[in-house]
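Internal tracking record. Fields below are filled automatically when a chain is submitted to the structure queue. Please do not edit lines marked as system-generated. If the sequence contains nonstandard residues, flag them in the REMARKS field before resubmitting.
Queue: standard
Priority: normal
Entity type: single polypeptide chain
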Amino acid sequence: MKKFLIIILILLAIPLSVSALVTYSGTQVSIDEPVNDDVFVTGNMIEVNAPVQSIVAAGGTITINAPVKGDVVAAGGTVTINDDIGGKLVAVGGSIDLAGNVSTNAVLQGGSVNIRKSAVIGKDATITAGSVHNAGTVNGKLSVQSRDVENTGTAGTYEVKVDRSPGRFLWLFSLIALLLTIGWYILGLLMIRFVPVRFLQVESEVRINTLVKCAVGFAAIIISVIAFVLLAITVILLPLAIILGVIVLISLVLANLFVASSLGRVIFGYMKWSGKEWQLYTVGFLVLCILSIIPVINILTFVIGLSLGFGAILYTIHNNREAISGSPPS
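SYSTEM-GENERATED OUTPUT FOLLOWS
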């Protein structure tokens, strides 16, 4: 099951024709020379001004001003596509603006999505956003879920679901969620930078007996919740309940970070890429973020990620119990 899910993720997010990987990172990244390879880039401001094979980008502002031969996967505050994409487009952002053509499918989620008149999507488009404006052409099915929809373009078939949920605090909640996600991502980078050995110990456990650790982690989470409730109802043991709750909460916060790094390592190995630890972690984290916006799959990803990560933490503690307690090995 795990291998099947990983293959699905790769098919969704990464082109199958990958033979190499070129990476960029920095506060401001500008790609001004053609790159005949697949590109992975992170930065506050990202501009692509020359043709590339395919691109995975994560940053504050992402602007693509040159043709991309393959797929584009982008996550940022603002995502702007001004040129043509030869494959599919997967974009998540506060604001998404599409002016170029997309040869196959487009999956877009953001605060606002604008498809300009010049844009042609070769197959289907699935859009979830607070506001959506489509003036372009979708040759296949256009599926929209939004509170505010304006469709002046054309589509083979058109389906709209009006989101009637209260929107007064939607932007506040979205901002908080974005900040928490960024902070969560940075926490993983800090762990890789300052405690790499401990981080990799837990991350390696994720890939060993995965199903067993997932089951153990799931059972341990349930047992921890029951133990917390039983301890909390007694005044004397309430401090112990608080300590237990804090430890479990911290472990659950960290759990998906180890899973993200392990997932990135599996993807890099499957695609025969080479990269640094933070690059593996970033790719895995980005894939988990994309999965978190897909209905049904997001629930499975959440449960499996927490269970697997928590189980890996427990196994790491068990395997290093002598070092933790200070007792000599038997």
